[in-house]
Amino acid sequence: MPLPRSPDSRWLGGRSDLRTDRLLLRRWRDSDLAPWAEMNADPEVREHLGDLLTREQSDASVASFGEEFDRRGYGWWALEVRAMGEFIGFAGLDQVEEDMPFTGVEIGWRLARRAWGHGYASEAARTVLAHGFGGLALSEDLAVTTAADRRSQAVMRRIGMTRDPAEDFEDPTAPEGPLRPSVLYRIARGAGH
After folding, report:
1. Which of 12, 147, 164, 192 could form a disulfide with 181 if both were Cys (CB 3.0 to 4.6 A apart)?
2. pLDDT for the residue numbered 9
């Protein structure tokens, strides 16, 4: 399924990507669909997310990412290692789902297993935070994961986010079981990120 194309990149002041020394955060390409589907079929990548996705579900998620970017002006960037031009996952911002017990804009990331342990998630997340607080003028950013997802929580702490255990909650969008107990991390603009 080809991705929808949009010439509109107002959300980044005319640019369509963000860069770090090692990473490119960019709009999705058709060439990302196969490695994205592989990630969504990997039980370790999806351990804290729920069911594995079919290729059709995976492709549909990418199409929705583009629609959200066009509609809201922010969303999930495809994440690429610049030196190799290799797709490794995503990072970005999304509106918190309506069913959640809080509102706001959420930062998130998901990387292929081969990209774990290289600091890419923290590097991308710091860049996304800087854009959210600078380019989008957000006053606060949130992050949510399952209580059992220690890797994501470690990234949240590394980028300066803090958790108040009083805000832990049962995720109403998750099925009954181990994916329901969830934690909420926050960071305010100017909080040393």
Report:
1. 147
2. 35
